[in-house]
Amino acid sequence: MSKNILVLPGDGIGPEIVTEAVKVLNTVNEKFNLGLTLENGLVGGAAYDVHGTPLPEETMSKARAADAILLGAVGGPKWDALEDRELRPEKGLLGLRSGLELFGNLRPAILYPQLADASSLKPEVVSGLDILIVRELTGGIYFGKPRGIRVLENGEREGYNTYVYNESEIRRIARVAFESAMKRNKKLCSVDKANVLEVTVLWREILIEVGKEYPEVELSHMYVDNAAMQLVRAPKQFDVMVTGNMFGDILSDAAAMLTGSIGMLPSASLDKDNKGMYEPCHGSAPDIAGQGIANPLATILSAAMMLRYSLNEVAAADAIEAAVSKVLDQGLRTGDIWSAGMEKVSTEQMGEAVVAALL
Ligand code: NAD
Ligand code: IPM
Ligand code: MN
Asked: Binding positions for NAD(+) (predicted)?
């Protein structure tokens, strides 16, 4: 049966990295006879420029109909000055996540042994690193209401957001985290700020409650400030980490650097039935866009996650991950992961090397 993939390149380096991931997908599609059909759509600034909105109805309906979505990145200085915040490129991405109820965001931080030198930490601290950050993606302070900027009686303006989670939102992400831990080393660290914020007092309570259904999983709790410190002090103490939307955003960027570069971190954003959107954790990197030097591996690895989680094509996913490892063995490096003695390659050369390794 044919499977329909919606490809949303987005802005900045998005189109450059997605082009390479699509080459890789087309290669496994033929090699493993997957029956994938790929179709393109517009999101973010690219959609705003054509349709005046970062998430056109046409994109949303294609996304609903697709079996899985591959997204590059959105945003950039061109659209930062837009007065109506609803029209910002990032709103397109947030609209896809909430509209499709993609509440479970998996961000695996794995250090390829070939990249030990590219990590910002000492090799002995990071070698063998394999952690999974489970980030809640459709709630918390990102979506809480009320929100806005208001004028106070004294004429001063005040910005405000609301950090809110209800029990069912916490319970469903807790289940994703415990289920993930069951498939790994059965250690789950829940990250909160329960010493200050009531919303995370409730978060902790629900984690403990759901944990009773998973007696084999060792559950611990950590405040987010300590978690940030522990991630750069001794990251291998973690197996699975689960946290809310904003803490997860921040901690996953920090974890990315342990793997050598933010250009190495893929992600899956899943709904309750494992339908998903797949995207690198990084952004549109305006500082290097258009230069052909961005690292496409996070996007290529996101395509592998898509095959694994939404399409159940495990052999094809394994093959992509093995091909990435092979090009790293060959010493090929984009600038962000380059170290002395390695061969510096472009986005396109990296993508084509992965394709060659698959053949
Ligand atoms: P960023 O992740 O785009 O870039 C941060 C730094 O990492 C930059 O120096 C960039 O060059 C580098 N980098 C990122 N991806 C890379 C890659 N694949 N290869 C090599 N280097 C890479 O974050 P930012 O600069 O804070 O944000 C830029 C824009 O992207 C903003 O508009 C932001 O809102 C948006 N953004 C989008 C997403 C997304 O679409 N999922 C994620 C984060 C940021
Ligand atoms: C990410 C990004 C997004 C987020 C932005 C672009 C809305 O930083 O996917 O990590 O904050 O979730
Ligand atoms: Mn982010």
From this structure: 283-295
Best mutation site among 79, 93, 243 for ligand 2 pocket (most ligand atoms within 8 Å of CB): 93
Task: Report the distance separating Cα 122 and Cα 291, nearest Å.
Answer: 30
Based on the fold, state whether residues 286 and 344 are members of the same structural domain: yes
Closest-CA residue, ligand 2 atom 12, reads 249
State if residue 253 touches ligand 2 by the CB under 6 angstroms criterion: no
Q: In this structure, is residue 111 part of a structural domain?
A: no
Domain count, the chain: 2
Alpha carbon distances (Å) from 70 to 83, 251, 349:
29, 23, 21
Same domain, 84 and 161: no
Do 180 and 101 belong together in one domain? no
**Residues spanned by the domain of 224:** 130-258
pLDDT digits (tens, 9 = 90+) for 85-100: 999 999 999 999 999 9
Identify the band that residue 240 occupies on the pLDDT scale cut at 50, 70 and 90: very high
Instruction: Give ∠ CA 234-239-242 in degrees, rounded to 5.
Output: 105
Q: What is the pLDDT of residue 1?
A: 72
**Can 163 be counted among the known catalytic residues?**
no
Mean pLDDT, all residues of the chain: 97
Mutation probe of ligand 1 site: the residue of 43, 80, 97, 262 with most atoms within 8 A of C-beta? 262
Q: Going by CA atoms, what residue is nearest to atom 11 of ligand 2?
A: 249
pLDDT tens column, 131-156: 999 999 999 999 999 999 999 999 99
Q: Is the CB of 121 under 6 A from ligand 2?
A: no
Distances (CA, A) of 93 to 16, 71, 322: 18, 9, 30
